[in-house]
Write a structure and sequence with these properties.
Elements: E1 2-3, E2 14-16, H1 29-32, H2 61-73, H3 84-88, H4 92-95, E3 97-98, E4 102-103, E5 110-113, E6 118-122, E7 132-134, E8 137-141, E9 146-149, E10 162-165, E11 171-174, E12 193-197, E13 202-206, E14 217-220, E15 226-229, E16 232-234, E17 237-238, E18 243-246, E19 251-254, E20 269-271, E21 277-279, E22 285-290, E23 295-301, E24 311-314, E25 320-324, E26 338-342, E27 350-353, E28 364-367, E29 373-376, E30 379-381, E31 385-387, E32 392-395, E33 400-403, E34 415-419, E35 425-429, E36 438-443, E37 461-462, E38 467-471, E39 478-485, E40 488-490, E41 499-502, E42 504-507, E43 510-514, E44 525-533, E45 543-546
Parallel strand pairs: 1-7, 37-45
Antiparallel strand pairs: 2-9, 3-36, 4-36, 5-6, 5-40, 6-8, 8-9, 10-11, 11-12, 12-13, 14-15, 15-18, 16-17, 18-19, 20-21, 21-22, 22-23, 24-25, 25-26, 26-27, 28-29, 29-32, 30-31, 32-33, 34-35, 35-36, 38-43, 39-41, 39-44, 42-43, 44-45
């Protein structure tokens, strides 16, 4: 078995990246998160620069800002800072800051945060079909910056599959591409499924699908099982059944015929607190799927219409759906419009919310611990034309988007973005351009707004409707406690991402929060536990297994 080549370079077995992760404790954010010193000027715009000479000593904000922005000032994006107004807005407490790109060793077309603090990522098979049979798969550790291969022990192309994190923290992958065709763009699906165990870095081939699926969507259920929707066997042969995987028995079953429905490629699906799964695109008509009855029902048309290559996310509490960007048709321009659907009411209807400053498609949405949502990457034209390198931050309270500091790389088709436990966001992927194998980390504005609260003790697991005791020396300053499910994203789809704010009370050095009400609100699995202070600054999150 020979693994596929990645674009542009020899594959390293292990790469150590010079990144210092945020520390726990109560020091100021600029002390907690000390960036590497700026890279030596050597082809940084094309990904040739390396980072060295990092320091963990205390530095002032000006030093941190200089390190975070040096690559931007040296890049074609310098025009972003060309006016006094924009230069003033470069304060990272207002627009955040990007660290220099770092080589991950492969293209992160799929990315999943695991409970061991690694991001599992993978790409397609490349090369001759008689030689190359297996995707390049690796992990990147957010604490150490180390990458290491996580090799599949059998022939398998997991490109264009869907993935989700099971209740025990293992990663379930369904469908993908038929590596025997020798053409990664031919859209031919497979019945394969797999489980990756991050604890011991092992792979297991699991119960096969009944239908071949390329571009399916996996959604985790309150009972710990996973549904697989949509995709296709090949062009013109859609996979319309719904299948259910049970990780306890390692079995796959096809749901009754009432569940069968054409939902297209990578349907935007989310589990809701009302016990139903919402399909919120890309087609304009949203619909509920009821796992209890295997039945569908229409909900409402999106105001914009079809949102091809648009993205969706659940807002905090998981009852409201945000849909943003995309395009109506293959010839239509990208839109900057956004809309909301409140599924907590008897008759939901889409309503408009604030529009993006920069219209885009093939972008990614990331839910942040302060309750806001970050849109990263995308561009004006599919697949790689006119990239939008300025992310925007959505405030659900005001319904407005705020442009953030620009990143170096274009992150359009085949890009990914996930929240990290320290509150940063990893942006990676896009299989085109000199930074295809590079990642970038974004520090949102909240990491530059003063001292970070710290969690000194918290339980490893908890059930539903239970008291959750969190030890912290900052209890009196905490305004928000939230749990966020680990991200698992590809092709703009991150179905299981959700943020659930918890009610709480503070006394002395302890916060007592109420865990989620039930498995519909927070399907069982591993969540990041954040406390956020009155300045909007989050802690570093420990892992909490719920359910």
């Amino acid at each position: 078995m020979k693994r596929g080549r990645r674009p542009g370079a020899q594959r390293p077995t292990r790469v150590i990246i010079g990144v210092t992760a945020p520390l726990t404790g109560r020091k100021a954010a600029v002390q907690d998160y000390v960036r590497p010193r700026p890279p030596v000027a050597s082809a940084g715009a094309t990904g040739g620069a390396t980072m060295s000479g990092q320091s963990t000593r205390q530095v002032d904000r000006r030093t941190v800002l200089k390190a975070g922005m040096v690559a931007v000032l040296a890049s074609p994006l310098a025009g972003y800072l060309a006016t006094p107004a924009r230069a003033a807005a470069a304060d990272p407490a207002v627009v955040g800051s990007w660290a220099a790109p770092f080589n991950m060793g492969g293209v992160a077309i799929h990315a999943t945060l695991t409970r061991v603090d690694d991001v599992l990522f993978y790409q397609y098979v490349e090369g001759s079909p008689t030689v190359d049979h297996t995707s390049y798969v690796a992990t990147w550790n957010y604490r150490t910056g180390a990458t290491a291969e996580a090799r599949l022990p059998y022939d398998r192309d997991v490109f264009c599959a869907s993935q989700g994190v099971l209740p025990d923290g293992r990663v379930f992958i369904a469908g993908g591409h038929d590596h025997t065709t020798g053409n990664k763009q031919d859209a031919v699906g497979v019945t394969n499924t797999d489980i990756y165990n991050p604890a011991n870095r092992t792979w297991t081939a699991t119960a096969p699908l009944t239908e071949k699926r390329w571009y399916p969507t996996v959604v985790g259920l309150p009972n710990g099982r996973a549904l697989v929707f949509g995709g296709q066997a090949r062009a013109g042969a859609p996979a319309n059944t719904v299948e259910e995987y049970d990780p306890v028995t390692n079995t796959m079953r096809t749901l009754p015929p009432t569940a069968t429905k054409p939902v297209g490629l990578y349907p935007r699906m989310h589990m809701l607190p009302n016990g139903k799964v919402i399909k919120a695109g890309p087609e304009k008509m949203s619909a509920y799927f009821n796992p209890a009855t295997s039945a569908w029902s229409n909900v409402a048309n999106m105001l914009y219409g079809n949102r091809g290559r648009g993205c969706t996310a659940l807002l905090p509490g998981a009852t409201r759906v945000l849909a943003v960007g995309g395009r109506k048709s293959a010839t239509a321009p990208a839109t900057g419009t956004a809309e909301l659907l409140d599924t907590s009411v008897a008759t939901p209807a889409w309503r408009s919310t604030g529009s993006l400053t920069y219209p885009r498609l093939v972008a990614n949405l990331v839910t942040l611990p302060d309750g806001q949502v970050l849109i990263v990457g995308g561009g004006a034209q599919y697949k790689y034309t006119n990239p939008v390198k300025i992310p925007e931050l959505y405030n659900p309270v005001s319904g407005t988007w705020t442009p953030m500091a620009p990143q170096q790389a274009g992150r359009m088709y085949h890009s990914t973005a996930v929240l990290l436990p320290d509150g940063r966001v990893l942006s990676a992927g896009q299989d085109s351009g000199p930074l295809a194998t590079y990642g970038e980390t974004f520090s949102p504005p909240y990491l530059f707004r003063g001292a970070r609260p710290s969690i000194t003790a918290s339980p490893a697991s908890i059930g539903y409707r239970q008291a959750l005791n969190i030890s912290t020396p900052d209890a009196g300053t905490i305004s928000r406690v939230t749990v966020i499910k680990a991200g698992a994203v590809t092709h703009e789809v991150n179905s299981d991402q959700r943020s659930i704010p918890l009610t709480f009370a503070a006394a002395g050095g302890t916060i007592t929060a109420q865990s989620p009400a039930n498995a519909n609100v927070a399907p069982p699995g591993y969540y990041l536990l954040f406390i956020v202070n009155t300045n909007g600054v989050p802690s570093v999150a420990p892992w909490l297994r719920i359910g």
